[in-house]
Give the backbone structure.
Amino acid sequence: MNNKEQTYLSKSGQVNYQSPSNIAIVKYWGKTGIQIPVNPSISFTLKNAVTHTSVAYQYTKGNNTLDFSFAFEGKNNPDFEKKLQVFFDRIMDTLPWLNEYKLQINSENTFPHSSGIASSASSYSALALCLAKVHFQITGEELGINTVSNIARLGSGSACRSVYGGWNTWGTSSLPNSDDEYAINIDDQVHDDFKNIQDSILIVSSDKKSISSTVGHQLMKNHPYQAGRIEQAKQNTNALLDVLKKGNWAKFIEITESEALSLHGLMMSSTPGYTLLHPNSLKIVQLIREFREQKNVNICFTIDAGPNIHVLYPLSNKKEIEEFIENSLAKYCSNNVVINDELGFGPNETGVAGAKS
Ligand code: DP6
């Protein structure tokens, strides 16, 4: 037995986590170096859109090579394995035992994978939590949540905000403990009115995106509006922090919709320019704005890098807004699909991925 082997506390085992996705209000768009955001972002974690991941580990007697397999919903996924290889290379310094163990990773989503809901946030958050737990079982060292968030970021930027429930911010801002390498939770600075925010996700199209977020981030590098965008996001971050504290829905609506449409404006005005919005996305935007004016209710939309619309509203308006969605908006969705979600409380350790409950 070599010395290293003696120091490992566990030779084999399995860990399981589930982690939700999140929806950004101030959008992360553009990065530099290794996954460092060019602007701060703010999101809340969802409740129902969740990834379950299990990691089985086995000591390989000092093989000194990274050895892993990955299956999504029971099927091997070579495309994702290539991305994971890059991810593991990035975290090797933090988790050096990765070269000494074989990992079997299994993952599945609770949301339909054809729904177009971004899963990289929930996937890498769940995986980072699993790896931190394996690290603990092997070495006895407990990694702090900031380190777990940092590991998740190295897989997918938005994932670093999913290791917590509630409201989170990532990237250096006016908050003294904010950081470019990990997200922090800001629930203690959020008014109760925003702690039960609802998100009905209108699936306008579930087709694969023509341009991935990763390519979109790259296109910000030489974007003519780059400096203006970074300034806008900083201002919106500061303004949103104040809005969340005060429970100011009117200003929340203004910032949220401006961020969503700015994101798509940046895509349209990059070189090459591209459009991810569907004609029905714009129809829904118009109908939400009309409904808000006519009924004088708090309702707004946000949009990620795709055509689907997240309808945001307070719990107190749930009945009226769900009726409006069913009667007036669902017909603009692919197969009338609407996924009702809301703010959730974050990841937890679970049973085995793939096991029937
Ligand atoms: C529009 O986190 O998916 O959803 O870091 O390349 O994996 P990578 O990008 P990703 O980008 C998300 C962009 C966004 C806005 C956001 O979630 O803040």
